[in-house]
Design goal:
about 300 residues; TIM Barrel; 8-stranded parallel barrel; about 50% helix; globular; binds dihydroflavine-adenine dinucleotide
Length: about 300
């Protein structure tokens, strides 16, 4: 119930205006977001890399309905990729990209505009010696995002994509995308979805995650196991072993600020662990989804608000 309310709030401009103006403690935002500037993202990236972690940097922003904004987002990603290369971090840091931030939802020709911008970002990533992973948004965009993935991979085969285990279609998508070299990040899914397309019970989502992971681990691609769930992390380790995968043939991924001790513990054990690191001013929908995932995060949020009174 609470999750549904928060996920609805994530899409509400009225609630957004109220929350963004509220005197929140920086601590709440800083826990999940690197900061507002490119420099903040680079500082946080260096710190994570110093702890043996890999990074996927996300410039916050989504649901752009303004062509100028979409162009500005593409430019900002090119700048980010230049900064990664200049800092000598290409081996450790890639970028995560939401097609909606590049104009996918623009009224006329949004999909083509987003694809063109994504091509520019992929070319910049190639020049920088690193990769791009396309985030997955709500189910109305899944086909368009996978279509864009196919087109981008024709020129940039290392472009990764995200599949969401809560969608009923995902096991089949995993089969389609488990081919040679295919980088697939498997997560549970973070949006409010109807039961016609998505499993609603947590146990059903978890079971779907295991089925999807089995397909990816036994396939020929590169699985990216994006979860903080200790049971799924343990299952992934067992499956990787069973599938005969070496430690550099898959990786774990977790969000910045979520289970940081576990991130380091896995890395210390010799596992590849990548931290999803968001930065920028458009933190509201991202933060609200994190609150929806975990009541303890909400308590932290409310304490932060109360502490300012
Ligand atoms: P879940 O939230 O169900 O938690 C399971 C268990 O993990 C908990 O019971 C607890 O034991 C442990 N746990 C979780 N949070 C914890 C915390 N803060 N402290 C301690 N223990 C904790 N979604 C999407 O729709 N599209 C996308 O593109 C992406 N991209 C993405 C990238 C990466 C790298 C990650 C890690 C996640 C995403 N997601 C996403 C978000 C994803 O779909 C999902 O909402 C969150 O990862 C939360 O799901 P979990 O698998 O962590 O399990």
């Amino acid at each position: 119930m609470l999750r549904r309310v928060l996920l609805t709030a994530a899409r509400s401009n009225r609630i957004k205006r109220t929350v963004v103006r509220a005197p929140l403690s920086r601590g709440m935002i800083d826990r999940f977001v690197a900061g507002e500037s490119l420099e903040d993202a680079m500082v946080a990236t260096r710190q994570l890399v110093a702890h043996g972690l890999l990074v996927s940097i996300d410039r916050l922003g989504e649901s752009t309905t303004d062509g100028v904004q979409a162009q500005a987002t593409a430019d900002a990603y090119v700048q980010l990729l230049d900064a990664i290369a200049a800092a000598g971090l290409s081996e450790f840091a890639e970028v995560s990209l939401k097609l909606s931030s590049l104009g996918q939802a623009l009224m006329s020709d949004g999909e083509q505009i987003a694809l063109d911008h994504a091509r520019t970002v992929c070319a910049a990533a190639k020049a920088a010696g690193t990769t791009v992973t396309l985030d997955m948004e709500d189910h109305t965009t899944t086909d368009a995002t996978l279509g864009a993935l196919r087109q981008l991979r024709a020129d940039f085969p290392d472009v990764g994509a995200v599949l969401q285990a809560y969608l009923r279609r995902t096991e089949s998508d995993c089969r389609d995308l488990a081919g040679e070299g295919s980088r697939i990040r498997l997560c549970k899914g973070a949006y409010r979805e109807p039961s016609s397309v998505a499993y609603q019970a947590q146990a059903e989502v978890d079971l779907s995650y295991v089925r999807c992971l089995r397909v990816l681990m036994h396939g020929k691609g590169y699985p990216m196991v994006a979860t903080h769930d200790p049971r799924l992390v343990a299952i992934a380790a067992a499956m990787a072993l069973q599938a005969g995968r070496e430690r550099n043939e898959y990786e774990y991924q977790m969000l910045f600020g979520v289970r940081p001790d576990e991130q380091r513990r896995l890395a210390t054990r010799g596992e590849k662990v990548r931290v999803y690191l968001p930065y920028g001013t458009e933190w509201y929908p991202y933060l609200t989804r994190r609150l929806a995932e975990r009541p303890a995060n909400l308590a932290f949020f409310l304490r932060a608000v109360a502490s300012r009174r």
